[in-house]
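Inputs:
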Amino acid sequence: MNAQTTPATPAAPAVAFSPADLARRRRAARRLGWALGLTVLAIYLLGFLLPR
Amino acid sequence: MSIATTHPADPHPGHYQPAGLLRWLTTTNHKDIGTMYLTFALVMFFVGGAMILAVRAELFSPGLQLMQPEFFNQLIGIHALVMIFAALMPAATGFANWMIPLMIGAPDMALPRLNNWGFWLLPPAAILLTLPFVLALFGIGDGALATGWTFYAPLSVQGGMGIDFAILAVHILGISSIMGSINIIVTIFNMRAPGMTMMKLPLFAWGWLITAFLLIATLPVLAGAVTMLLTDRHFGTHFFNAAGGGDPILFQHLFWFFGHPEVYILLLPVWGLIPHVLATFSRKPNYGYTAQVYAFIAIGILSVVVWAHHFFTAGMPIPALIYFMFSTMAISVPLAVLFFCWIATMWKGAMSFETPMLFAVGFIVLFGIAGLTGLILADVAADAQYHHSYFVVAHFHYALFAGGIMGVMTGVYYWLPKWTGHMYSETLGKWHFWLTVVSFNLTFMPQFFLGLAGMPRRIPDYALQFAEFNAISTVGAFVLGLSQLLFAWNVWSCVRGGPKAEGRAWEGAEGLEWELSSPPPHHSWETQPVIK
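Outputs:
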C-alpha cells in the first residue's frame, strides 16, 4: 500500500526501440483496436432490436 | 492556426515534414495532437462560458430582460453540451495524448493516424452544435436545441431543426471519443516499457484506462438512443412517441445509462492526476496506490448500474427505487477510499503550495461538497423535494466545475513546464486560484439555498423571493468567468517564453515523464526505459 505514483526511474541502461518490436506491438494494438471497435458497433446496433 | 509549437517540428533532417497549417492537419505526433485537444478545449471552454454568462445576466433579476425563454433554453442546452463534450472531454483526452506515452515509456500512441482523425472530427462537431444560433440570425430555422442537454422525449421528438444538428454533432463527438478511447486502451496494453506491469502503471493512466472502457461501453448506447430519436423525428418510428405506442421513459433510461457513467468519464482522469500532484508537493510517495486502483475499478463498475437515480420522480416500482438508491450510495465507499488516500498522501508531508497544489487541495475540499450533496440527492424520499431544482444545478457544478474543470487546471499548471519548457507565473497562478475559488463559491453556494427554497432549474424568470441569491450568483459568475482570462493569459505567456524549466520541473516529482527534457524530444522515448 505504499507504492509510488509511478514506478520511478529506469533501472537498467536504456536500449533503442527495435523496429521489429515496435511493429509487433503495433500489430497487436491494431488487432485489439478492431475488436474494441466491433464491440462498440455491436452495442450500438443492439438498440434497434428493442421492441418498437 | 496560432497554436504555438512546444517541440521541434522537424526531427528528421531530410525527411519531409509539412509546415504551418498542414503540419497540424496531418500530424500524428501525440504531443501535437495533445496540444490541439487542449487548445480546442480552452477555446470551447470560453464559448460555453460566454453562453452561460448570458444566462446568468438574464437571471440577475426577476422578469425577462435580455432574451426570450426559447433562446434562454437553447443557451442552457448548448452550454452543457459544449462544456461536457467540447471542453472537459477533449481536455482530458489532451492530457492523455500528451502524458500517457511519456509516463509509460512509449515512443508515441499505438495508433497515431486514428489519433489524428479523432481530433479533427471535433471542430466540425462543434460547428454543428453552435451553427443553428447563427442560422437563426438569418431567419433560417428556429435556433439550437432547446431541450436541455438531455434531449428528453417527447419534447425532442417535436422540436425544431436544432435538435437534428445536435443529434448529428453528438454522433460525431461520440465517434471521436471512441477513437480516442480505443487508442488509449491499446497504447496502455501494448506500448508499456519493459518491467512496467499493470500494478506499476501511473495512476493517471489507470484513471484513463477505466474511463476509456466506460466510454466504449456507454457511448454506443447514447448513439443508439439519439439515432432512434432521429428516426422517430423523420422516419416514422415510434420508439419514444407515446402516441404511436412508444415509451418516453425508455429514452430517459437509455440516455442516463450513458449519462451517469459520463460523470465518472469526466472525473476519473482527474482522480488519476490528482495523486501525482499531491505526492509531488507533499514530497512523499503516494499513499494507497493499490487501494486507489481498486477504487477506480469499483467506481467504474458501479457507475453503469445506478443510472435511474437521475429520474426517480419519473415513476418506478418501489423495489427499483430502493435498488437505485442503495447502489448509488454504494459509490461513496470507493470514493471515500480515494479521499482517504489523497489526505493520507499529504499527511506529515513536506508540503508546499505552488499553484498546482493549491488547485489540488481546492479540488479535494470543493469536490467533497459535491460528494456529500450527491448522497442527499441519492435519497429517494429527499430527491422528490430536490429534483429539478437549483440544488441539483449547484451539486453538479461542484462535481463538474470544482471536480472537473479545477482538476483540469491542476493538470495544466502541473504539466505546463513539461510541455513548454518554461515556468508560468506563480503570482498570476495564485491570483487565478483564489479568484476562482471565491467566485465559484459565490456563484454556486447560493444555488443550494435557492433549490432548497424551491426555485426550479431551466427557467428564465422567477419569483421575487429568489432575487437576492440570484443577484449574488450572477456577480459571482461574472467574476469567475473573467478570472479565467488570467488562466488563458498565464498559459499563453508560458508557451511564448519564461524562465527555463528543467526536465524534472518540480522538486518532488517522480515518474518516467520527468526523466525526459522539458519540452520532450519529438519522439518521446527513442530508447526504451526499463522499469525496476
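Remarks. Chain B touches chain A through 62 residues (CB under 8 Å). The radius of gyration of chain B is 23 Å.
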